[in-house]
Specification:
Strand content: 35-45%
Number of helices: 4
Mean pLDDT: 79
Oligomer: single chain
Helix content: under 10%
Number of domains: 3
CATH architecture of the largest domain: Sandwich
Shape: elongated
Radius of gyration: 37 Å
Number of strands: 34
């Protein structure tokens, strides 16, 4: 076989995405298999070398893929990368799928996830019978309600064999003079041998991911391990224990059994590990302008649920305050003020809603055809960010004139806050009003249409400009 040059090896993909069902290569972001028609949440990413070895592939998926995915995706993949046994009690019963039950009951609270879990009274037990298996991994989520007294043990669960005179391996909690510790107990040449972990220290009524591992060995090569929340805390190796596992017992073993809750049970020949973390969905609906949350969802409920083929579409609302009207917009009055070129005429404006300002409307006309810009300042006369609008044509015919702000560069106003709103023009314009009493207006006679600055209050008038 000719060796490939190094630069070519670097260009070749190290990973391949496959369909979970037929295991043929699919595109990385695909959700449909073109070969078998299977629909899936996401393709399975595996090293290329594992595709030729089904055992390596299954071991890789269990060890590296399962711990990183959601419960929904894990349940889906188990159809094709099947554990020996699973039970999350979501049927509302212990038997089946467990083989026998003595004292265990179904509860709805507390649960690790889902609707149901199993409650274990002290010294109650349920078990699952399987064909002799090695290696064997058993994982569950459990919490103990009653911790052991000083110097005693409480057993979570154990793995047994038909051919072993005593229990093969078990695990639980030990009270070491007031300090609670995880322990593993295994058969070593007919003697029950305990391995106690220094840490972590368990506490009552807290869910832990507890996983027990056994591999038989006829020539001093048996081994067993205990994992807590994905971390190996106890291990033993180099002894003889030639027993395949036939039973998974939850509850009573050689010591007092657990009193607490069991959920999310998996039995397999490969490492299982903790379930993927659950991240909260995004609660904020929309906040494009730092004020109100504005927007419409097509199906926000589906966005909050498990992965499926229904997706949520967020439509951002037009977050403008609406048009702001300056001057006369109705009635038959014909009074107006003439605003000279490069002069700013302002009126008080208090918006009822928060958001962007898209445009300002006034009733008036140019003394001749001209251009004008809208202006918005704070209550002290300082221009707001993006407070100068776009140049807009103003005809010499009296009527409603709309001055706009450029999309993406619009000023933001907050409901109930006082602003000044006004205009500056290239040539003289006429602004109409309804009354000369009760209003609050300002006039800046020296400014620049080309580059407007914060207006200076050069005089006040009392026209009632109609601002909405």
């Amino acid at each position: 076989m000719k060796l490939l040059p190094y630069f070519l090896l670097r260009l070749l993909p190290k990973w391949q995405c496959i369909c979970p069902k037929c295991r043929k290569e699919v595109k990385p972001n695909s959700h449909d298999c073109p070969y078998c028609g299977e629909r899936f949440p996401s393709a399975v990413k595996v090293p290329l070398s594992f595709l030729k070895d089904p055992k390596k592939l299954e071991a890789y998926v269990h060890k590296h893929v399962f711990p990183r995915i959601s419960a929904f995706e894990r349940n889906y993949l188990t159809k094709y990368f099947t554990p020996i046994f699973t039970s999350d009690f979501e049927t509302g019963a212990i038997v089946p799928p467990w083989t026998d039950n003595s004292g265990g009951t179904i509860v709805t609270s507390p649960v690790h996830h889902g609707t149901y879990a199993a409650h274990m009274a002290e010294n109650s037990k349920f078990d699952k019978s399987i064909s002799a298996t090695s290696p064997c991994y058993a994982r569950l989520y459990g919490q103990i309600s009653s911790l052991p007294t000083n110097g005693s043990y409480r057993t979570f669960f154990g793995l047994d064999s038909l051919s072993c005179p005593i229990n093969v391996v078990s695990c639980g909690i030990y009270n070491d003079n007031g300090t609670y510790k995880w322990y593993m107990c295994y058969d070593r040449a007919g003697t029950m041998t305990y391995v106690v972990a220094a840490s972590p220290n368990p506490v009552a009524d807290t869910f832990y991911c507890v996983e027990l591992y056994w591999k038989k060995g006829a020539s001093s090569d048996a081994e067993c391990k205990l994992y807590i929340d994905g971390v190996e805390v106890c291990s033993a190796s180099g002894f003889t224990g030639d027993w395949g596992i036939n039973y998974w017992n939850v509850g009573t073993q050689q010591e007092i059994g657990m009193h607490g809750i069991v959920d999310c049970c998996v039995l397999d020949t490969s490492y299982i590990g903790p379930e993927a973390s659950f991240y909260p969905y995004i609660q904020q609906i929309s906040n494009i302008d730092s004020v109100a949350d504005i927007g419409t969802h097509s199906n926000f409920t589906k966005q909050q649920s498990v992965p499926d083929s229904v997706f949520d579409l967020l439509t951002e609302a037009d977050a403008d305050t609406g048009t702001s009207t300056f001057g006369k917009t109705s009635g038959s009055g014909s009074s107006y003020r003439t605003t000279a070129a490069n002069e700013v005429r302002l009126g008080v404006f208090t918006p009822a809603t928060s958001g962007e300002v898209a445009s300002i409307v006034f009733y008036g006309r140019g003394a001749s055809a001209t251009y004008a810009k809208a202006i918005i300042t704070d209550s002290s006369g300082n221009l707001l960010t993006n407070g100068v609008g776009a140049a807009t044509a103003v005809s010499a015919t009296a009527g409603t004139k709309t001055l706009t702000f450029t999309a993406g560069s619009r000023p933001i106003v907050v409901a109930g806050t006082t602003y000044w709103i006004g205009f500056i023009s290239q040539a003289a314009i006429r602004l109409y009003y309804d009354s000369t009493t009760g209003g609050t207006s300002k006039q800046d006679t020296t400014n620049s249409y080309a580059s407007p600055t914060s207006p200076t209050d050069a005089g006040s008038t009392t026209e009632t400009w109609r601002l909405m």
